[in-house]
TrEMBL record:
<keyword id="KW-0067">ATP-binding</keyword>
<keyword id="KW-0808">Transferase</keyword>
<dbReference type="GO" id="GO:0005524">
    <property type="term" value="F:ATP binding"/>
</dbReference>
<dbReference type="InterPro" id="IPR011994">
    <property type="entry name" value="Cytidylate_kinase_dom"/>
</dbReference>
<dbReference type="GO" id="GO:0036431">
    <property type="term" value="F:dCMP kinase activity"/>
</dbReference>
<feature type="domain" description="Cytidylate kinase">
    <location>
        <begin position="11"/>
        <end position="209"/>
    </location>
</feature>
<dbReference type="Pfam" id="PF02224">
    <property type="entry name" value="Cytidylate_kin"/>
</dbReference>
<keyword id="KW-0418">Kinase</keyword>
<protein>
    <recommendedName>
        <fullName>Cytidylate kinase</fullName>
        <ecNumber>2.7.4.25</ecNumber>
    </recommendedName>
</protein>
<keyword id="KW-0547">Nucleotide-binding</keyword>
<comment type="similarity">
    <text>Belongs to the cytidylate kinase family. Type 1 subfamily.</text>
</comment>
<dbReference type="InterPro" id="IPR003136">
    <property type="entry name" value="Cytidylate_kin"/>
</dbReference>
<dbReference type="InterPro" id="IPR027417">
    <property type="entry name" value="P-loop_NTPase"/>
</dbReference>
<keyword id="KW-0963">Cytoplasm</keyword>
<feature type="binding site">
    <location>
        <begin position="15"/>
        <end position="23"/>
    </location>
    <ligand>
        <name>ATP</name>
    </ligand>
</feature>
<dbReference type="GO" id="GO:0005737">
    <property type="term" value="C:cytoplasm"/>
</dbReference>
<dbReference type="GO" id="GO:0006220">
    <property type="term" value="P:pyrimidine nucleotide metabolic process"/>
</dbReference>
């Protein structure tokens, strides 16, 4: 375990937008009875927080953020405000990559994610984002890079209609300058979901978890 992490069994999943990280991680967590942490939600919440126009030191100081670790009911709060739906919108998507480039914001999110992992009361937790396998939980028992071809990812997002193709491509391009999530780091398993349906993707991840649990 990396310093500060005490949660029992950690499944770390990284990958670009639309690869299936959130939906697959949630379902894996449900089936295994694990907690689920969407670290992108923290960056998206900070992006909405930054729209107040305050300077960065003040934004870092006043960021009051909560997220549940329950895969069946993900509630996100900024202070008293419920931003569960707002963080998925185009406004947050357009603002988030610039925010995610700032080292102080990344440090705050790193501490936040590690603290949530360490307080998870389930037997394990699935944590997904861009730098989980490399920075947040490099010593996780299972480390996976979930990918899919760009056309497949755009089609999946198109079906959801949460973000334009241009915005998603710009976000991936900007994000990949900050952290590497197209090529697996040493010891990270690559799961390409381009030709897998949802259930096959879930099974691929569960298979890797079971192999690690059985010491294979
Ligand atoms: N392997 C898959 N096959 C088909 N659809 C998938 C698969 N994985 C995810 N999806 C669908 O694609 C959409 C985007 O997935 P999502 O989990 O939000 O990706 P990410 O969190 O990586 O951005 C969702 O509607 C999800 O149900
Ligand atoms: N571990 C993480 C998670 C998200 N992020 C940033 O937060 C944004 C939103 O992440 P997300 O996981 O909600 O995005 P999707 O993959 O769901 O589209 C990303 O575009 C990155 O800018 C990050 O930098 N590091």
């Amino acid at each position: 375990m990396a310093a500060g992490l005490v949660a029992s069994f950690v499944v770390a999943i990284d990958g670009p937008a639309g690869s299936g990280k959130s939906s697959v991680s949630k379902e894996v967590a449900r089936r295994l009875g694990f907690g689920y942490l969407d670290t992108g939600a923290g960056y998206r919440a900070f992006a909405l927080h930054s729209l107040s126009g305050a300077a960065l030191p003040e934004l870092l100081e006043s960021f009051d953020y909560q997220i549940s670790l329950n895969p069946d009911s993900q509630q996100v709060l900024l202070g008293e405000r419920d931003i569960t739906l707002d963080i998925r919108g185009e406004v947050a998507a357009r603002a988030v990559s610039a925010i995610a480039r700032d080292p102080e914001v990344r440090e705050l999110q790193l501490r936040d994610a590690r603290s949530r992992i360490s307080t998870c009361t389930q037997s394990g937790i699935v944590v997904e984002g861009r730098d989980i396998t490399t920075v947040v939980a490099p010593d996780a028992q299972v480390r996976i890079l979930l990918t899919a071809s760009e056309s497949v990812r755009l089609a999946r997002r198109g079906l959801e209609q949460t973000e334009t193709a241009e915005s998603l491509k710009a976000r991936d391009a900007s994000d990949s300058k900050v952290v590497e999530f197209f090529t697996p780091a040493d010891g990270v398993a690559l799961v390409d979901t381009s030709d897998l349906n949802f259930e096959q993707s879930v099974q691929a991840v569960i298979g890797l978890v079971e192999a690690a649990q059985n010491g294979r």
